Amino acid sequence: MRDCFSPSARPELLELRPSRALLAWWVALHVVLGLAAVLVNLPIGLAGLPVLALHARLKNPVRGGLIVIGPGGRFALPSAGRFNLSLAPSTRYGPGWAELVFSDRPRARLLVLRDQLDAQGWRRLRLTLGEAG
Fold this sequence. Notes:
By secondary structure, this protein is an alpha+beta fold. It has three helices and seven strands, in the order E-H-H-E-E-E-E-E-E-H. A four-stranded antiparallel beta sheet has the order 1-2-3-4, covered by helices on one side. Strands 5-6-7 form a three-stranded antiparallel beta sheet, with no helix packed on it.
């Protein structure tokens, strides 16, 4: 992983699955926006619905990925090409979500929902965040 972790320490890999909860929210958001545009008779009207559908498809935030947790609470996001990251104090988490904010420049944020990880991965992430906070 590009010199960010020592060879003697074994990093933990957390495989993120696409979130069904986030997908449901994303679809519902675009359906509500489309209905609102039609019901209030916005100038875009029905012509804007294909644009809204295209936006929903192309900007879809629902994707998986990989989080690598190394010794000392260092992180790597290989799919984003970001390595040797440290958590910022603004990192927050709740019972079903975690917002990872990395202090390195350029700043990166990652929202992780509970349904993206198995039980062991979720415990490991929460443990790491608890140690960092």
